[in-house]
Amino acid sequence: MRFLTTLLVAGAAVLAASADEMKKDRWYFSVGAGADNLPVMEQNGRNRDIALYPHRDFSNLPDGKPKGYRWLYDLETDPGYLVQAVVGRMFKSGGRLELRYSRRNASLEQNFNSISYLYGETIQYKDIDIQSNSQSSVGGLETDTLALNVYYGVPVAGGKITPYLGGGIGLSFVKIRDLYYESNFTGTQPPDAPPLETFNGLQDADLNGTAPTQILSAGVDYRLTNETLIGLKWTYAVVDDIEKEAYYQKHPIIGLTNITRFSGMNHWSIGIEVKYLLGE
To answer: What are 120's strand-pairing partners?
Structure first.
């Protein structure tokens, strides 16, 4: 009985010491990793291409000449990964303030949706033996986010467990890898017409942009020692669209560019974090 009493007293002393530590303002750093998912994305683009392609019928256009094109793809995403590093301040009030760097990576797959002339006219094709053999793809998405977050948590179970809620604002540095388009014309042109290869096109580019980002988070930490916590965290990030201009490496119109917008980059993640508390 004396042994049990001693053990209970010692345990109570440890919990009291932990509670006292929780009441201090302390700096901490944290690292984490997890899974990331983007439910829906879209890619839409436009250009000012006025070339008269041999396989298209321009008779439905007001002046018999295109002013450009507009296209749309739906993008499927595979689950990606998340890694992050944090420097923060934990306050005895139960609040936390932190600066967080996160990197997310996901692969993308295009699904063709539509293409039209720039102002919505339907594209018509000639009934001739000429094909454009076009193909397009996009490699993947990388997002580096720097955000300032605030949290509030209430310790329970003697300070061992702390559920919390939080939010923040930041800036995401977005990179779209391997934006690719190629058209390779085949067939037979009349003798007095330009060679088909003069209509071939190629674009292979990486697009980089910045986007304001808003973040909501919820999680729970478990105190392993007075200095170390391990936790599970869920995050939802709202990332604004990016729109960038890029050149074609090959095109009937020398120096032509197109503009591509990527939208729907909102994503959620779930991951494990380890926090290490420093002195006051």
So the answer is: none
